[in-house]
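Appendix B.2, paired examples.
Example (i):
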Amino acid sequence: ISVLIFIGALFLAGCSLQKTQAQSESNQPTQIVGWVENAKIPSVEKEVKVKLDTGAKTTSINAEILEKPDNKSESGGMIKFKFKDGKNNKEIFERPIVRWGEIKSREGANMRRPVVRMKLCIAGRWIEEEVNLADREDFNYSVLIGRNMLKQGKLAVDSSKTFTTKLSCPTQEAP
């Protein structure tokens, strides 16, 4: 019986330790940010101005598609694209396609876009989430941070503010 009690005590200690570790990660405080902030994309030399948009479900990045699998593939396959912004930041990325997303354009038409996973640093937090690849040349911001990254990074947007945080990205979390 004492052996069973000892094993049970070890089991409960392990469970409470796991619970504590999980809670400490999720206890990161919510950070208030402005509707425009600076961000860092790994391997892009300079910081990038991003728009934080609570009306957008998924983050979107300006991408010129260089190579992609056929449109019939729902997921899988690699896509090669060039990120560009208005400040001469350019970088070529190659990522696996996670899925294809249906996005409504400004005119209301449905558009099919490839979705990949990317990591960005916003407000000192590295956030890895799904990003759809879009032609954003005609927009003011080459990156639109959607609710998926806002939620993952525990960021709340104050629409009356811009550039509320100094861009400092922890190097140990960079990919």
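Example (ii):
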Amino acid sequence: GPVILLAHSMGGHVGIRAVLETRIKPDGLVTTAPMIALPMGRLATMGSRIISNLAAGVGLGKRYGPGMSDHDPARVKFDNNPLTGDRERFNRFYGLLARNPGLALGGVTWGWLSAAFDSMAELQRLARDPAEVCPVLICTAMADRVLSVGAQSALSDAVQNWTQIRLDGARHEPMMETDAIRARFWAAFDDFLRTV
């Protein structure tokens, strides 16, 4: 049968970039909340990219970026979290981390930010004149505060035979969302499979 890649967030970024660079040639790619850009304006993005490149360049690459730190279970709260509107799945996820603290990740470092800004710029450059690539379904979590919703829409519009579904009410982790949101995602996923 067809080979379909399913990737989320930064994995979605890597999958999209690998497809645009023709490093991989699956029959289709489905991404949820892919990292195309951070949710900031153009000037803020330029300034942040310059600062992160400078910080990484002077040896601060392994230090946390502004407002970032190690994972702290005491700061984990469901209310106003950016990941999911489903309390049960939120509690299950953070319960798993509490029992297995070695799986937890801290915030982003200056080095990660520098590399991420460079890679996002390269992805957007590749999308301006793409090679002929497989169909892609971009599943955008419309209540995402982690990544740019608008950048996902712009990318899906820029590349022929790429489509977008908008998951209204979904936060950054559609797979951890309410049953209704997950059902909309899986219906779109099944529809996409029928086209490849």
